[in-house]
């Protein structure tokens, strides 16, 4: 994630900000340029917009901001679209008349926009399913009230471009219960978005392309019965040697899940490294490590040709990140070990993504 500053006062901003907490300037994110810009000047602050930021005047705020205050992205002023490029992907939003649904939806939207930011930064195709059958769509659904419906719980998942998210994932208590029940080391809203997007991009970038056979060589035969694979996984658990071959236990379920989990971790890596890059983070331990834990991020991770360079920096950064988290009394921020076979899979994802970026 990039860092952003207020055009008016220079204050450091968060990606989700809708106004500057120092000077009160109104803010909006312009997806075409991946920039958070000032869209209204504070009355009590003496400042002017930089000339190159006056383009914000040709944009208007997304309807999900004006109606529900859940989005800070902008829409081209001349566009007939009411929603920004991220909100256009929504097919179903929760019933906002139900208590807590709006706050849950707000949290989901914040994480979804982080996903879309990453996809746009990687130059990946992002367009709504409502405009094209190969597009992407989101359903944000709540479990039905058992007193009025015999339908089962909403399952988070992907089906031919439609990503369904149970809004209970936005409840930290419910999410922790699910994480414990599923025996997962890591479970976040953003992690769900990244994982499910992996299924979508497998269909867009791997299926019916020259990447399919190389993908099968690394991830396995995706034609095996998916339902049977899931049932086998939940009945018997993962193979005992899964850490030697997979990035997570769930990745061992089926080649599709292996791809989706690996894809999600690739997005974890590039986005976190970009954040470290923009903060100017260097990792140089004050103990002797024979140079094994050293990183100086001076490149754009989103457009790095060689995956080896990303890995060389990821290991020190994630080690430092985990150490900082432990100092705060939290578990490891990145509780995963990347074995050589997993690194090969991550390198494959990197090459597929880079193949989309090159002319």
Topology of this structure?
Layout: E1 4-5, E2 12-13, E3 26-30, E4 35-40, E5 59-61, H1 63-66, E6 74-76, E7 90-92, H2 101-121, E8 137-141, E9 157-159, E10 162-166, H3 172-181, H4 189-206, H5 212-219, H6 226-236, H7 242-245, H8 255-278, E11 282-283, E12 295-296, H9 307-327, H10 340-357
Parallel strand pairs: 7-8, 8-10
Antiparallel strand pairs: 1-2, 3-4, 5-6, 9-10, 11-12
Rg, alpha carbons:
21 Å
Give the terminus-to-terminus CA distance. Answer: 24 Å
Query: How many strands appear in the DSSP assignment?
Result: 12
Multimeric organization? single chain
Summarize the amount of helix as a percent range.
25-40%
Structure notes:
It is a single chain. Helix 2 crosses helix 4 and helix 8 crosses helix 10 (340-357). The protein has ten helices and twelve strands. The radius of gyration is 21 Å and the shape is globular. With 359 residues, it is an alpha+beta fold.
């Amino acid at each position: 994630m990039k860092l952003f500053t207020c055009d008016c006062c220079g204050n450091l901003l968060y990606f989700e900000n809708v106004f500057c907490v120092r000077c009160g300037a109104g803010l909006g994110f312009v997806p075409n340029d991946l920039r958070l810009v000032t869209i209204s000047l504070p009355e009590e602050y003496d400042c002017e917009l930089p000339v190159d930021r006056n383009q914000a005047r040709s944009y208007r705020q997304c309807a999900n901001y004006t109606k529900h205050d859940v989005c800070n992205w902008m829409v081209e002023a001349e566009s007939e679209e009411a929603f920004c490029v991220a909100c256009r992907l929504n097919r179903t939003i929760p019933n906002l008349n139900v208590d807590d649904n709006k706050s849950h939806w707000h949290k989901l939207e914040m994480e979804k926009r982080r996903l879309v930011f990453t996809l746009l930064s990687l130059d990946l195709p992002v367009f709504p399913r409502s405009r094209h059958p190969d597009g992407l769509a989101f359903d944000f659904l709540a479990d039905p009230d058992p007193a009025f419906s015999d339908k089962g719980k909403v399952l988070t998942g992907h089906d031919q471009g439609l990503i369904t998210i149970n809004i209970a994932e936005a409840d930290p208590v419910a999410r922790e219960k699910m994480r414990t029940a599923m025996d997962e080391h890591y479970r976040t809203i953003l992690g769900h978005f990244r994982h499910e997007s992996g299924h979508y991009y497998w269909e867009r970038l791997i299926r019916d392309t020259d990447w399919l056979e190389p993908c099968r060589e690394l991830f396995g035969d995706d034609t095996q019965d998916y339902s049977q694979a899931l049932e086998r996984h939940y009945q018997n658990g993962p193979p005992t040697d899964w850490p030697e071959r997979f990035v997570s236990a769930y990745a061992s379920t089926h080649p599709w899940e292996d791809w989706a989990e690996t894809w999600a971790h690739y997005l974890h890596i590039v986005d976190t490294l970009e954040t470290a890059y923009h903060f100017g983070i260097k990792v140089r331990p004050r103990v002797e490590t024979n140079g094994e834990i050293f990183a100086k991020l001076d490149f754009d991770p989103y457009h790095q040709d060689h995956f080896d360079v990303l890995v060389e920096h990821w290991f020190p950064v994630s080690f430092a990140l985990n150490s900082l988290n432990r100092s705060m009394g939290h578990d490891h921020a990145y509780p995963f070990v990347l074995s050589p076979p997993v690194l090969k899979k991550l390198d494959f994802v990197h090459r597929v993504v880079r193949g989309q970026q090159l002319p």
